[in-house]
């Protein structure tokens, strides 16, 4: 499949969360790297929602920003980080990405692009692990060290990992659907490209025994917002993300899950 | 002393959940949760009603607190929120222009 994709037009189409994004480059090596990294998420025949040209430059500093900066200026979105510059116009649905030939910069660009588009559609990218079991999706959020990677690693054979790092949620009527992502964390394991209705959100913490308790919507919203990936300094979109998080905790059960790190915790899930 | 007027900033998103007012600053994504007294002040911040009147009519009446002490606390509270860009505080009535439609983003 990789040979076909590059030979056809020096492009790959990466589809995450039902959103195909076309990435073009003059470098076959770079495209092959993308095909390997996003292998479960390639949709060669899909009609792209956004198109990006990648301009590869020598490794080194591209912009002055140490931290990622995302803002809307003169009709286009700008992403700046030391190793990355990206810009695109929502109207034309085209843009460009300037980076060295490495997988991390474009991974960052894709996360940010998806987070901005999802914000308008009532969806969220959440710093959380997620998995599907018995046709239902479960989300596990928490601060660093709370156990996201651990619970993903402990998942039983009948669970399908959507992500151990970045979970992808889309609004669907009154509920939400969780999608697999190729955005891997410590497990360095790409999620499966599947989707399922979100059945519950667990806010994780490790403890001496397994307990689960529902939490109030206000606390749930606060904790969810702490884990939402959103970088744009944009009044309107921040408001939309806030509303989405509040809506999600109104429609999806949220629990505090304290767990002892062994496989028994999964007996409480699904 | 001239009266203080307070108005909710337009650069915030807010929602009441479980009786608490949650407010997020759209500038820096900082999240604030107000207690019931703070929530009443927030909801009354229309830019036209002086803070002293809000305290007298709503805070003292509802929470049975001393008006002098309550006004002092309220002034401290609104100044704190104003420092985060959540409220606008002025010694004159406040009105905001209507928001323009944004471009597609």
Topology:
The complex is a heterodimer of chains A (270) and B (105).
Chain A: H1 2-9, E1 11-16, E2 19-24, H2 28-37, E3 50-56, E4 69-73, E5 76-81, E6 84-89, E7 94-99, H3 103-120, E8 124-133, E9 136-141, H4 148-153, E10 160-163, E11 166-172, E12 175-179, E13 195-206, E14 211-214, H5 217-226, H6 235-251, E15 254-259
Chain B: E1 5-8, E2 12-17, E3 20-25, E4 31-34, H1 36-44, E5 46-50, H2 51-63, H3 67-83, E6 87-90
Antiparallel strand pairs in B: 1-5, 1-6, 2-3, 3-4
Helix pairs in contact in B: 1-2, 2-3
Account of the protein in words:
The complex is a heterodimer of chains A (about 270) and B (about 100). Helix content of chain A is about 25%, strand content about 35%. Chain A has helices at about 1-10, 30-35, 105-120, 150-155, 215-225, 235-250, and strands at about 10-15, 20-25, 50-55, 70-75, 75-80, 85-90, 95-100, 125-135, 135-140, 160-165, 165-170, 175-180, 195-205, 210-215, 255-260. In chain A, the strands form 2 sheets. A 7-stranded mixed β-sheet of chain A has the order 1-2-3-7-6-5-4. In chain A, strands 8-9-13-12-11 form a 5-stranded mixed barrel. Chain A is globular. Chain B has a single domain, classed as Alpha-Beta Complex (Outer Surface Protein A, domain 3), CATH 3.90.930. Chain B starts with a strand and ends in a 15-residue tail after the last strand. The interface between A and B is medium-sized, with 25 and 21 residues.
Features:
heterodimer; A: 270 residues; alpha+beta; Phosphoenolpyruvate Carboxykinase, domain 3; 2 domains; five-stranded mixed beta barrel; globular; disordered N terminus; B: 105 residues; Outer Surface Protein A, domain 3; three-stranded antiparallel β-sheet; 3 helices; 37% helix; 28% strand
What's a concise summary of this model?
The complex is a heterodimer of chains A (270) and B (105). Chain A is an alpha+beta fold and 270 residues long.
């Amino acid at each position: 499949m990789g040979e076909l994709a590059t030979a056809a037009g020096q492009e790959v189409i990466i589809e995450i969360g039902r959103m195909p994004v076309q990435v073009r480059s003059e470098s076959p090596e770079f495209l092959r790297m993308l095909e390997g990294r996003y292998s479960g998420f390639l949709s060669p025949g899909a009609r792209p929602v956004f198109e990006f040209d990648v301009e590869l430059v020598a490794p080194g500093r591209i912009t002055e920003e140490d931290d990622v900066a995302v803002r809307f200026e003169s009709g286009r979105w700008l992403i700046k980080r030391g190793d990355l510059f990206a810009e695109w116009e929502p109207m034309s649905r085209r843009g460009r990405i300037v980076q060295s030939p490495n997988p991390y910069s474009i991974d960052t660009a894709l996360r940010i692009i998806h987070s901005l588009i999802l914000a308008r559609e009532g969806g969220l990218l959440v710093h959380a692990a997620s998995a599907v079991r018995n046709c239902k999706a479960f989300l596990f959020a928490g601060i660093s060290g709370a156990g996201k990677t651990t619970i993903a690693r402990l998942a039983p054979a009948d669970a399908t990992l959507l992500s151990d790092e970045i979970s992808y949620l889309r609004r669907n009527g009154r509920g939400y659907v969780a999608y697999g992502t190729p955005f891997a964390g410590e497990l360095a394991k790409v999620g499966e490209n599947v989707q399922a209705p979100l059945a519950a959100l667990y806010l994780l913490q490790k403890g001496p025994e397994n307990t689960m308790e529902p939490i109030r919507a206000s606390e749930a919203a606060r904790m969810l917002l702490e884990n939402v990936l959103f970088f744009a300094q944009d009044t309107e979109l921040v408001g939309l993300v806030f509303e989405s998080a509040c809506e999600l905790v109104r429609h999806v059960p949220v629990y505090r899950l304290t767990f002892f790190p062994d496989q028994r915790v999964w007996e409480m899930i699904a | 002393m001239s009266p203080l007027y307070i108005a909710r900033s337009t650069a915030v998103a807010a929602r009441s959940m479980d009786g608490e007012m949650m407010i997020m600053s759209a500038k820096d994504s900082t999240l604030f949760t107000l207690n019931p007294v703070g929530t009443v002040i927030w909801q009354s911040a229309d830019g036209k009603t002086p803070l002293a009147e809000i305290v007298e009519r709503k805070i003292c009446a509802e929470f049975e607190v001393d008006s002098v002490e309550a006004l002092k606390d309220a002034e401290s509270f609104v100044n704190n929120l104003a420092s985060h860009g959540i409220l606008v505080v002025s010694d004159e009535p406040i009105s905001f222009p209507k928001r323009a439609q944004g471009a597609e983003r």
